[in-house]
């Protein structure tokens, strides 16, 4: 809990490439070094998006209004004015002829943002506004930069625009100015001073910009650091630790870590355990490589901790690049945080009992793997 407090309260939000992300890396590295590990930073390049402007202005009978709008990452930059035209969920058939040369209002859901935007461009739209399919605003990502500016707005704003559009013609202006700049992030890597890496225990320590990332992933980082401390205090073992940066930009840190492994290291790592978002909710769904899921079930049984073998895809996280590289990997958590990626992902919601269970499961798994 103390590590999570440093990360989520003292440091706060830790977006990839920020000074706060680096401050968190320095804290983690110093902790791991103080337990006797050889601990260092592994830097890698990233691209950071800087938003200078993201506006949606609507002119209607009762006067102009400005609506809070966020650019999708990574929208085209530009300023476009046109009639606001409703285009359903953004399927090709949802676009009326009036979409041509105008701005389309699309509901989030069912198909990917990139498909909605490609369909909007095909219909001739000059900009797209996507409103949330649940209450509040959202941050979205496109697989590549489209030819038109795209912004997201809250469901409430989308619905009031639709109400107005039922009785009058609305003229909207979408203005986006976004810049991609080169930046740097880093992993924190630690190994026993005189040992090898049979197991990699890891998790990401960066957060989304929206909030302090207490559960995502101050929680997993804290458990990894405590596992390192506990193992060192009990004579150690061939276990290495990796805290990844820039996970929230697309697993950049764990991809860089795996890419930097030598063929010898690749073949000597028997398992990767990923701790991500574990201190909120109840239950322990386990997913990943079959052999590790089975072993984790045995460990949980031995500790009397209820678990589920999860067949659903876990959220994308840092175990994936290891599995890609044929290293068995496992993630344990419950996919159930109501404050996921929001400003409310804060320390007060972290549950001590879940920290205790995650630590016990982690330690049990490490012991079982080292004994095999
Ligand atoms: N911590 C999440 C992944 C996650 C979600 C794990 C729910 C367990 C339960 C991670 O930080 C995240 O948000 N991942 C993204 C994908 C990533 C490649 C940007 C996601 O799942 O959408
Ligand atoms: Zn996460």
Alpha-beta classification = alpha/beta
CATH class of the largest domain: Alpha Beta
Between the first and last Cα atoms, what is the distance in angstroms? Answer: 31 Å
Poorly predicted regions are none
CATH superfamily of the largest domain: Zn peptidases
> Total number of β-strand segments?
14
| Tally of separate helices | 10
Outline type? elongated
Bound molecules: ligand BES, zinc ion
> What percent of residues adopt helix (DSSP H or I)?
25-40%
What is Rg? 23 Å
Number of structurally distinct domains: 2
Average pLDDT confidence is 95
Q: Which fold name corresponds to the CATH topology of the largest domain?
A: Aminopeptidase
Strand content bin: 25-35%
Going by CATH, the architecture of the largest domain would be 3-Layer(aba) Sandwich
Q: Can you write the helix and strand succession as a string?
A: HHEEEEEHEEHEEHEHHEEHEHEH
Major sheet details: 14 strands, mixed
What can you see in these coordinates?
This protein has 372 residues and is α/β, with parallel strands linked by helices. The chain folds into two domains: 214 residues, 3-Layer(aba) Sandwich (Aminopeptidase), CATH 3.40.630; 129 residues, Glucose Oxidase, domain 1. Helices cover 33% and strands 27% of the residues. It contains ten helices and 14 strands. Strand 12, helix 8 and strand 13 form a beta-alpha-beta unit. Helix 1 packs across helix 5 and helix 8 packs across helix 10. The longest helix is centred in the middle third of the chain and has 20 residues. Bound molecules: ligand BES and zinc ion. Zinc ion binds next to helix 5.
